[in-house]
Write a structure and sequence with these properties.
Length: 312
Amino acid sequence: MPASRRTLVIGVAGVTLGALAGCGTGHSAAGDASRPPSSAGASGAGGSGSFAGSAGAGEGGAATAGRRLPLQAGLSATPGGVGRAEIAARYGGLRPRAWALDLPGTITRLPAAGRTLALTFDACGGPGGNGYDRDLITTLRRYGVPATLFLNSRWIDANRPAFADLAADPLFEIGNHGTLHRPLSVSGRSAYGIPGTRDAGQVFDEVAGNHAKLTGLLGRPPRLFRPGTAYSDDVAVRIVGDLGETIVSFAVNGDGGATYTAAQVHASLLAAPPGSIVIGHMNHPRHGTGPGVAAALPRLLGAGFRFVHLPE
């Protein structure tokens, strides 16, 4: 395995886990562990594994990278006040140099030492992905365990009462999981059979569409973003930063793209190193995520682990 965590594989209960599979698509993370999702296009070393802000200046635009463009009339619900045309003009000519889960500018681990874990759960929406694991949420509430919930625009539309209930609970932070649940690419890279965005304008659409929806529903903008499949390229990471959000990846794949049994989920959580961000799914109530989390939480809490939100 290379030193970089680009493929993020860990062994749990005899199963090799790959990077996150498509949510709600039926793709198995375990089945794709041996290869990265798409071999075409540029690639580069993944990155920091640290808690950081948006990526810094790079090829083309060093003078403006990292700062927000001025708010324009009619764009009050647009992330950072940046319009689609500005993003397309600024980044349209750049070629990505890396495609990974843990690029610089993304969050993959907690910054502080200690026995802390951060649970994150995706709800991806669309065909096969609009379910709601109410039992999982009940378990988190029973133990007072906070979590970040990354919600896709389609899932929100299909689950408005559940969304309102979750948004009103301070135990949960609501994150942006995109408009159509697409990997973030400026060159059409795909992951696990899910086509990515094709250019900078489509990256804007994927982030800004659901950002505007969440801002309107929550009364405040979301600060965290997770792409569909969690894959992005380095140019897309910079775009997300300009749009006022930060990409959150993960260090531990908790449920293999909602394909694990309850026993595998349980083993994955118990094996999570301190400081890990754990990814799971909350849109497959008949799968193993909910029961596995319910079995693991008492043991982790009894072992002295604390569960935290992602810090500012």
